[in-house]
Amino acid sequence: MTKQTQQVLWSTRFAFILAAIGSAIGLGNVWKFPYITGENGGGAFILLYLACIALIGLPVLVAEITLGRRARQNPVSAMQFLAQEEGVTSGWRLLGWMGTFAGVLILSFYSVVAGWTIAYVIEAVSGSFTGLTGETSGALFGDLIGSWEEGLLWHTFFMLLVLFVVARGVRHGLERLVVILMPLLFGMLLVLAVYAAFAGDFLKGLGYMFNADFQALFQKCEGEACEFTAEPLLVAMGHAFFTLSLGMGAMMVYGSYLPKQASIMNSAIVIALADTLVALLAGIAIFPLVFANGLQLGAGPGLVFVTLPIAFGSMPAGLLFGAIFFVLLLFAAWTSAISISEPMIAWLTGKRGLSRVSASLLVIGVAWFVGIGSVLSFNLWSGETYQLFGKTFFDLKDYLASNILLPLGGLMIAIFIGWAAHRRLSEEELALQNPAVFGLWRWLVRYVAPLGIILVFLNAIGIF
Ligand code: TRP
Hints:
By secondary structure, the protein is an all-alpha fold. The protein has 19 helices and 2 strands. The protein has a two-stranded antiparallel ribbon.
């Protein structure tokens, strides 16, 4: 196979970092992180998650970007090309396939939650947040997700937004958008965190986030009866992959547009830091409000949508802040969704010769269709008859993609770069001045990350 030469590159390393940050920061940080933290008991879970980011996520992020830039192709062709270059089996392209599948799954539930943010922009503007209490806010959210018509409408609307950008090509426009919007989102979260410090139960919220009770973390109780569960470990690791956009080729594709002289290591560190900071800030803004308003920590996917509107409904200029916040969250979700669909689209255009527009229509169309099931999970299909393992279709897709497929993809990336490929590949691409940094990364990616992932998997199925 020949290497494509006419790849369009990011204009600068800065542009790449911004796009990658735009991919990383999204609903995962502001919506998913607080709600799974609430479901898993707080501080101990957060510590696990941070450990997963540092020991598994960051090394794999570096590896994924490295493979992408080396091959400069879509994930399927990239793995095939690299396997050939390294003289190993071309079966490695399975990694690309798996990523494509995971991408459709993720997009098909991501879009539904992103749709809720659009609905909430409108709620904010029309003044629905004014004077909300824990109860009325819960009812507002309940009404939204309870209506499949509305869910479908916003899901469709969001998919069209994504289609609009990906059909025109990712690199035009995305860069400029991210430069302005990400700092704004950060600023808004800061405002909310400060508000939470005054109006919320700040100490209790922070105590919940930073007080690690490991014993409680691994206990699953129903009534009086408690048993050991390794589930939180799997969820923490899965989320580390999800929030860094890892394990399905998204960062590989973005890396494939990265200019040669840019430092991958520094970029990856900046991306991981920014992503983690935003997630923690979202938690700091949300948990004090949860306690102050007597809301349920384990409220699940609705946590953010029930909590923050109460704050907007009682703060000065809350109508404006509320509208701005949900618009920014929508944009964050948008830039992320673009990166979820990019691997598949890159593959269809690069390998299958489809035009950019047809490929985008196909990918978004399939994800939209599968996504209808995610919409129905909150209303028509919310009953037990439609559940599997006690999970709705929405939850199942999230579970399968985030907790299984992404870590599996990450495992393959780590094994490929750490064991299958020659050391020279990463040495050349990373071009690190400091041999100790390279050594540390290589140790993490060869031993710590793969073993960590395997142990968590074994743990989750109860073997270890
Ligand atoms: N990281 C994004 C978030 O936190 C979601 C996302 C974008 C993603 N691209 C991805 C997740 C690729 C997995 C794989 O919202």
